[in-house]
Design goal:
With 119 residues, this protein is mainly α. 84% of the residues lie in helices and 0% in strands. Helix 2 crosses helix 3 and helix 3 packs across helix 6.
Length: 119
């Protein structure tokens, strides 16, 4: 039979592994820089009213988006949306690029999910 003294190192090792796994998941869920989150919330508030309620809803919204779309993909979508506003050949390239359109669609789906959960 295993004594309590023998179990302590095993339990301690499992606790460390569990804490590490939680930490890694938290890092993955929080890979958006603070400035990107703030910019999203600011734009969201401009679109939804500048109230305390909109701060809560828009903060929730970026959390949902960040949980669905990796930051690199978010940057791709935001760049595509911004550059598609440019007139001429450069804008056309962003409006017709399959990669850009897929990233934008991923972002829009995440924002729709955020709308359901937060607003």
């Amino acid at each position: 039979m295993i004594s309590a003294l023998q179990l302590r190192p095993i339990v301690a090792a499992w606790a460390v592994l569990a804490a590490t796994a939680v930490s890694v998941r938290a890092d993955e869920a929080n890979d958006y820089p603070t400035a990107a989150r703030a910019e999203y919330v600011y734009g969201c508030m401009k679109a939804n009213g500048e109230s305390r309620q909109s701060i809560e809803q828009c903060s929730c919204s970026i959390d949902v988006v960040a949980s669905i779309v990796p930051y690199e993909r978010y940057v791709t979508a935001e760049t595509a949306l911004s550059m598609s506003q440019v007139r001429g050949n450069l804008g056309v390239q962003f409006r017709t690029s399959e990669q850009a359109n897929t990233a934008v669609n991923d972002l829009r789906r995440a924002q729709a999910e955020a709308e359901v959960r937060c607003f």
